[in-house]
Amino acid sequence: MVLQAIKYKRGQLEVLDQLRLPHAEVYETVRSSEDAWHAIKEMRTRGAPAIAIVAALALAAELENLSAANKLSDKAEEVAAFILEKLSYLVTSRPTAVNLADAVTKLSKVVENALSEAGNGEAMKDAYIQAAEKMLVDDVSDNEAIGKYGAEWILKNGIVQGNSEVSVLTHCNTGSLATAGYGTALGVIRSLNAQGKLRRAFCTETRPYNQGSRLTAFELVHDKIPATLITDSMASALLYNRGSEERIAAIVVGADRVAANGDTANKIGTYALAISARHHGVKFLIAAPRTTIDLQTKSGKDIVIEERPGWEVTRIKGPRFDGAELDPSIVENVSIAANGIDIWNPSFDVTPAELIDAIITEVGVVEKDESGAFNMASVFEK
Ligand SMILES: CSC[C@@H](O)[C@@H](O)C(=O)COP(=O)(O)O
User: What atom in ligand 1 is closest to the CA of residue 179?
Assistant: First the structure.
């Protein structure tokens, strides 16, 4: 069965509660923009592309249900104002991943353009819903293209082992759970595996929220992809070349915002991986759809980094263990730090473009030009 973070049919949206994974697979119904805002903020749903799509579809479901209950205004202008207000609210849920802001900008334009054509509230609602639903469909096909381009690039430029297979390291969760399906960096791993070219995927635990051990490991096991979990602190030891032992062909990660110069904000710990990759002569790749590229942000210095609550660092979540059996229905937050210690919990870091070898998008791979710079605008010319 295909793993789905988002289940949608017109008027009905459900998201897989990622706080309860991997111990329980529970879907939560999202009925309104307010429900979506909380699900995103509290990270029950997460991942840069997924939060944009959940926000867009939550409002679509809300509009459809208001219409079914005869509570939608019949004036196009009033429905447009309602949609624009909800979009401005939804964008405040998480600041770093630009996909959410990008979706809000695009959907606001759809609504503004529809004002001249939509004769009534119902037509305005339909214009919005069609655009939101298209985002869900496009994300999956974009990810499949990213997977194909990324796999090709790694097989050509990465460290390929004797039997023409590659091992790849990834960070955080960029798979079906972080997107509408297939995944970005994890899509590259899926594509390598489908071609019989993946020797092994390694995934980091991704402290403090553990997207790697809870979510990526869950996806890799679910899809029967050969994989090994390491703690974040083991990555450099893995990259260190010990002769005949495991060689990592490349590190491939996702992104939450790629600035115009290629500087990339991604899950905390990405920057350390990029430094280690450069030191060990291992290629370092970003895999992200064009919705993650923000030409308005000139460099990484301008990216706002979300800081999350300290308890995400001091506590770890897991099912109750009575010494014999796990009870997945009772999830506890266990303290793993000394009470009273101050905490810094930035959710993302910025990897300078200098440390990135290539950026994989759905329209192809962006590599540096002769001057050593990425021309990110080029992906919008295709
Ligand atoms: C494909 S999403 C980009 C990821 O690499 C990653 O940073 C991410 O999933 C976002 O983090 P999260 O804080 O879990 O929402």
Answer: 1
The whole domain housing 72 covers: 6-139
- pTM (predicted TM-score): 0.94
Domain count, the chain: 2
Q: Where are the beta strands (DSSP E) in the chain?
A: 6-9, 12-16, 27-29, 166-170, 198-204, 227-230, 250-253, 257-259, 264-267, 283-287, 293-294, 315-321, 326-335, 348-351, 358-361, 364-367
List, for residues 224-269, the tens digit of each pLDDT value.
Answer: 999 999 999 999 999 996 655 678 999 999 999 999 999 999 999 9
> Among residues 256, 263, 294, 357, which one is catalytic?
256
Question: 139, 168, 190 — which closes off a domain?
Answer: 139
208 lies in the same domain as 354: yes
- In ligand 1, which atom is closest to the CA atom of 171? 5
> How far, in Å, is the centroid of ligand 1 from the Cα of 110?
27
Model confidence pLDDT, tens digit, residues 88-129: 999 999 999 999 999 999 999 999 999 988 789 999 999 999
Please work out whether the CB of residue 127 comes within 6 Å of at least one atom of ligand 1: no
Q: For ligand 1, atom 7, name the residue with the nearest CA.
A: 267
Ligand 1 binding pocket includes 172 (Cβ within 6 Å): yes
Strands 358-361 and 283-287: parallel
